[in-house]
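User: For a reading group we're discussing how well predicted structures match intuition. Take Enoyl-CoA hydratase/isomerase. Before you show the prediction, I'll give you the sequence so everyone sees exactly what went in.
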Amino acid sequence: MNFKLSDHGSGKKVARFVDICTNEQNSLTRASLLELTKILHDTQADEKYAALVFTSGNPKFFSNGLDASNVASVPDDKLAEEVGEIVLFFNHLLRFDKPVVAEVTGYAMGGGAVITVGSDYKYMLEGKARISFSEVLVGLPLPGNFIDKIARTVYPPFVNAICAAENYKAGEAKAIGLIDETAPDLEALRKLTLKKLDYLNRIPLSALQRTKQAINAPILERSETTLKHIYESFTTPVIVKNFREAMSALAEKRRPQYLD
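Assistant: Thanks. Here is the predicted 3D structure of Enoyl-CoA hydratase/isomerase, as structure tokens, for the group to look at:
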């Protein structure tokens, strides 16, 4: 089981909690992202649920992004499909029109940061937790839909730094608008989530849904262009070779030697 599901609340205002528990680093594969997409679709369709919360009981990782060991075994002709699934998932997350909360309980790297910025309300644990869109560090260009959402979330002067894989602690992430609030411990983090859910429960869900659709519409309207650009990137030889080198370097615990 890659995700543990639980409910909070009763009546028409139930929140579905999604506990990420894929492996030791909570890394993601195409298969686990397809599973998570199905959870989104099921939660969207079920009138029982009024919100969704991403969290993790992992003591270190909220999600550490792509699973390097899995990607290493994927042939080149399947690489765009495997690596590109996170781009498709992000579009599904933006189309999910019920409120989404992210409890960033640890490291949120790559895909973990993607889940976070795609959420409507973002709370982060102080201390060892970190967040970074680390894609370019492994030779992958940041997809346009990620960039669009980042640009609509953080303060403008910090967009380029974020897209270049700057790494942020909780307080730093809050200061630039990437995170809404921070908490000193898990109990305080959960209190932030429950307080927000309690507030949202006083608002008609239909109003929240139509508002969220309008917020994300400009990004989704560019989705075809984004997907085309990403497919071209993931099939460009120098990018594929650099990415392969990055995955090998991670496995061998050394500094990568890129082609450019």
